[in-house]
Amino acid sequence: MPDDHQFMEQAIRLAEQGRGHTAPNPCVGAVLVHEGTVVAKGWHTACGKPHAEVEALHDAKAKGIDPRRCILYVTLEPCNHHGKTPPCTQAILMAGIPEVVIGCPDPNRSVAGGGAAHLQSMGVTVRMGLMEKECRDLIADFLIWQTTARPYSILKLATTLDGKIATRDGQAAWISGEASRREVHRLRSLCGAVIVGGGTFRADNPTLTCRMPGYEGPQPLAVIVSRTLPDPARSSNLLSSRPEKSIFWTTEAESRSARATRLTDLGVTVWGLPNVKSAPETLDLGEGLRLLRTDRGCHHTLTEGGGHLAGSMQSQGLVDELRIFQAMKVLGDEEGRSAFAGRKALSMQDCWEFRTVEQGFFETDLYLRLRAKE
Question: What b-and-e string marks burial along 38-66, b requiring 16 or more CB atoms within 10 Å of the CB?
Fold first, then answer.
């Protein structure tokens, strides 16, 4: 007979289907189980739409399932407050569900504990904390939105087995395979901005768009981090095809330059960022991320390198999630460009440490999804 974990695992998989569409709400999944079988399911599909518990109840009604004979498994504590939708606790009580199994408590300080406590006070059996770590990972972006003013920041790297992202002269096409590149475009479709360094902008002349077949959604903003702005007169894909979607992060002095004015005249946005106090030559990338969220409504960003930008993001504590696509290739050149660069680490104790959230393969490329080790 299936155990609790299998039901919660299914709820987690359902929740992932809402990724990129629920912001600023969390991804949540729910299943109704009768006598060891999942009989109805739902997930939060988009902000303003019914929550997962209500979707599961709608599914049960459509199938003629009586919720009074079921156990509800839900990845996040049901809400007990009025927002854009009525409280889920109300729907659960009206449906007569006798038992609710919850993955993790609601981290929202204003409502934490309210849903579970209210259900218990009304006679519902509540079990909290099933696969809590996995369910908290599911809402890692929501936790960032609740505790900071910036978007959830994903860093993507395509590397060789020896950790190189390009040859010594900057050639990077193509390290990873076609399946990995398709996945990167899927990631771009979920993010409000794609961020690259000035070196990548100059070497690759990118468009930084989502080119997933059949995709008709909004294109991400293109963000270029460079202490020196480009000459507006020189041809580039971004300046010629979508200047209004392009943002440059640069120094405060450079943002007041004649080049900045000419770029602004083209429709480009130029943001001068302060330097990090402890590192006078380093731009405060956190301020740039904050502006993306407050000024442009970005809830997810995707940084695609290069190595110095990746190193700066990590040094400033701005990498919430690392996605690595590692090709079964070895460059073998010590002067090839590394995935992370820009720091002096004299001891193995200086290493940044990560934990694996997900792993697999895209064709022959090893895929790792990582977060900072807790």
Answer: bbbbbbbbeeebbbbbbbbbebbeeeebe
C-alpha torsion angle, residues 95, 96, 98, 103 (rounded to 10) = 20
Look up the pTM and report it: 0.90
DSSP E strand boundaries for 229-311: 246-251, 269-273, 275-276, 279-283, 300-303
Return the sign of the alpha-carbon dihedral for residues 44, 49, 53, 59.
negative
CA 253/CA 361 separation, integer angstroms: 45
Q: Is 53 a catalytic residue?
A: yes
Burial of residue 89 (CB within 10 Å: 0-12, 13-18, 19+) is buried
130-149, pLDDT tens digit by residue?
A: 999 999 999 999 999 989 99
Q: Are 23 and 141 in contact (CB under 8 A)?
A: yes
Q: What is the pLDDT of residues 196-245, one digit of tens each?
A: 999 889 888 999 999 999 999 999 999 999 999 999 988 899 999 999 99
> How many angstroms separate the CA atoms of 85 and 24, rounded?
14
Compute CA distances 363 → 163, 328, 367, whole Å. 19, 11, 10
Active-site choice (16, 53, 55, 134): 53
